[in-house]
């Protein structure tokens, strides 16, 4: 029988702790402490940044870390790492996921790291070696960086056939924390879900058949201010493997949603809507029920974790946006009643509470549900009021030759939180145009609130992509990207 996810997780932690002397460090909250450069924790290494940077207080516990293992709550829904676009469309990018990682701070390096990873995957988890591909840094002549032959040789010595040891460039196999700071080549392990073929061209192709499962980064340089690379006095290892993907591999599922990390949630969603989950993938149609199941299952995990750690208000617009997206999918696509979203929370806390104590108590569960319900009610009522105000204004006058009053558009936005883009689109649907000049003036006048930027971002919270297309927004992916660009530029 396939290994349950809880055992996939504990096997990893036990392997490094009990067999290889690593200290088990708890996950940090998803909101980074004292790091304004990050919206959310997006990798296990985030909490260890001071060690890599050499800024850890020598009296702190952290300063004594040599070998560490952990399972980190990660969110990639904003900022540099934003996977929101892929969620539900593919089966292996989530906004919230658990990253299993092991670290060496000036202790072991490449050889031991690869050896342990290979043993864990092939012997303890029993993954057939002939399904695995590994990549290494192939060098970059322009930047004067040599290929990481050392890592290549390590894999060959471990018995990986040369045809499955593949060189890639900077983008995939050289990891940098930022413009300056610790960095180095990495090696990634990929799994072929099909097998019995030569799939090397599919590695790093974003194919659902060959997925990246584990990234091992070898931190050996420091990127200096003048952009040169200086060898660090001590080398470190930083690895990360997605629990959901690994579980997919071990349970023989190409979609993570078909593993026991998600099936209880899909069942819970089925309780609140009429039709079942059919597991169809490969669609970009936001009206598709299966896609909505996946999005809602993904988003409710993210919401529960984010609210438990930070509360929705201080987590900011990004979490609010996920909440509204989830509400919209629940109500518009799944035809679930109001309150359905919050009713999924106990399933999440039941599944994650054992591992993450902040999700374990009755009080945690109740407060997460309350916050979701309040925000859902608020959002739905704004939507209703907004539509009514718009309707009323439109019915009072004939707008065939006239421009829609900017003051009403502005009030929809400011007083009811309606995205301005949405106002534009709703008007366009009715063949009406807003008084652009006057509206621009109002926007400029209120620029300090930064509200126009927010409105573009929120546009997709409330509108289905089909609605965007109906009124002629050129391409849905572009508009999504546009929204994300604004978000990143904040
Ligand atoms: P991908 O190329 O698939 O987007 P990545 O290269 O961005 O992954 P890393 O930053 O190397 O991922 O993170 C380490 C590991 O975390 C990955 O190998 C993968 O197993 C997992 N992971 C990354 N992003 C996600 C996500 N959005 N959802 C689930 N797991 C993820
Ligand atoms: Mg990625
Ligand atoms: Mg990758
Ligand atoms: Mg990677």
Automatic annotation (TrEMBL):
<comment type="function">
    <text>Catalyzes the attachment of alanine to tRNA(Ala) in a two-step reaction: alanine is first activated by ATP to form Ala-AMP and then transferred to the acceptor end of tRNA(Ala). Also edits incorrectly charged tRNA(Ala) via its editing domain.</text>
</comment>
<keyword id="KW-0067">ATP-binding</keyword>
<keyword id="KW-0820">tRNA-binding</keyword>
<comment type="similarity">
    <text>Belongs to the class-II aminoacyl-tRNA synthetase family.</text>
</comment>
<dbReference type="GO" id="GO:0005524">
    <property type="term" value="F:ATP binding"/>
</dbReference>
<keyword id="KW-0436">Ligase</keyword>
<keyword id="KW-0479">Metal-binding</keyword>
<dbReference type="GO" id="GO:0000049">
    <property type="term" value="F:tRNA binding"/>
</dbReference>
<keyword id="KW-0862">Zinc</keyword>
<keyword id="KW-0694">RNA-binding</keyword>
<protein>
    <recommendedName>
        <fullName>alanine--tRNA ligase</fullName>
        <ecNumber>6.1.1.7</ecNumber>
    </recommendedName>
</protein>
<comment type="subunit">
    <text>Monomer. Interacts with ANKRD16; the interaction is direct.</text>
</comment>
<keyword id="KW-0547">Nucleotide-binding</keyword>
<dbReference type="GO" id="GO:0005739">
    <property type="term" value="C:mitochondrion"/>
</dbReference>
<dbReference type="GO" id="GO:0004813">
    <property type="term" value="F:alanine-tRNA ligase activity"/>
</dbReference>
<dbReference type="GO" id="GO:0008270">
    <property type="term" value="F:zinc ion binding"/>
</dbReference>
<dbReference type="GO" id="GO:0002161">
    <property type="term" value="F:aminoacyl-tRNA deacylase activity"/>
</dbReference>
<feature type="domain" description="Alanyl-transfer RNA synthetases family profile">
    <location>
        <begin position="3"/>
        <end position="490"/>
    </location>
</feature>
<keyword id="KW-0030">Aminoacyl-tRNA synthetase</keyword>
<keyword id="KW-0648">Protein biosynthesis</keyword>
<dbReference type="GO" id="GO:0006419">
    <property type="term" value="P:alanyl-tRNA aminoacylation"/>
</dbReference>
């Amino acid at each position: 029988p396939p290994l349950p996810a809880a055992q996939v997780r504990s096997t990893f932690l036990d392997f490094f702790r009990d067999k290889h002397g690593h200290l088990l460090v708890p996950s940090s909250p998803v909101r980074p402490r004292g790091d304004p450069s990050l919206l959310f924790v997006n990798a296990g290494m985030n909490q260890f940044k001071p060690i890599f940077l050499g800024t850890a207080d020598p009296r702190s516990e952290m300063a004594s870390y040599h070998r560490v293992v952990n399972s980190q709550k990660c969110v990639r829904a904003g900022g540099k790492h934003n996977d929101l676009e892929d969620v539900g469309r593919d089966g292996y990018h989530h906004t919230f996921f658990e990253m299993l990682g092991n670290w060496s701070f000036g202790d072991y390096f490449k050889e031991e790291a690869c050896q342990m990873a290979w043993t864990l995957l092939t012997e303890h988890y029993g993954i057939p070696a002939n399904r695995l591909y590994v990549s290494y840094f192939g060098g970059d002549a322009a930047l004067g960086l040599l290929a990481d032959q050392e890592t290549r040789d390590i894999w060959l010595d471990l018995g990986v056939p040369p045809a499955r040891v593949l060189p890639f460039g900077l983008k995939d196999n050289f990891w940098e924390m930022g413009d300056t700071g610790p960095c180095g080549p990495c090696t990634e392990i990929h799994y072929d879900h099909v097998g019995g073929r030569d799939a090397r061209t599919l590695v790093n192709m974003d194919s659902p058949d060959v997925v990246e499962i584990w990234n091992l980064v070898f931190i050996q340089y420091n990127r200096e201010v003048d952009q040169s690379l200086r060898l660090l006095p001590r080398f470190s290892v930083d690895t990360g493997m997605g629990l959901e993907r690994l579980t997919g591999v071990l349970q023989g599922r190409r979609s993570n949603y078909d593993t026991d990390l998600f099936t209880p949630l899909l069942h819970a969603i089925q309780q609140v809507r009429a039709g079942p989950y059919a597991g169809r993938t490969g669609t970009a149609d936001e009206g598709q029920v299966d896609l909505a199941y996946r999005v809602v299952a993904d988003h409710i995990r993210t919401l529960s974790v984010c609210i438990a750690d930070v509360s929705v208000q201080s987590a900011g617009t990004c979490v609010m946006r996920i909440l509204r997206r989830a509400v919209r999918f629940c109500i518009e696509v799944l035809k679930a009643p109001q309150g359905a979203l919050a009713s999924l929370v106990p399933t999440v806390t039941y599944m994650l509470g054992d591992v993450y104590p902040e999700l374990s108590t009755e009080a945690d569960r109740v407060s997460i549900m309350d916050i979701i319900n309040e925000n859902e009610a608020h959002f739905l009522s704004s939507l209703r009021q907004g539509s009514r105000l718009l309707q009323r204004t439109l019915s009072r006058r004939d707008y065939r030759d006239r421009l829609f009053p900017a003051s009403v558009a502005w009030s929809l936005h400011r007083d009811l939180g309606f995205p301005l883009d949405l106002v534009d689109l709703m008007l366009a649907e009715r063949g009406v145009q807003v008084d652009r000049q006057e509206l621009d003036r109002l926007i400029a006048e209120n620029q300090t609130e930064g509200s126009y930027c927010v409105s573009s971002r929120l546009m997709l919270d409330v509108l289905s992509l089909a609605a965007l297309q109906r009124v002629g927004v050129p391409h849905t992916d572009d508009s999504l990207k546009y929204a994300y660009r604004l978000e990143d530029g904040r």
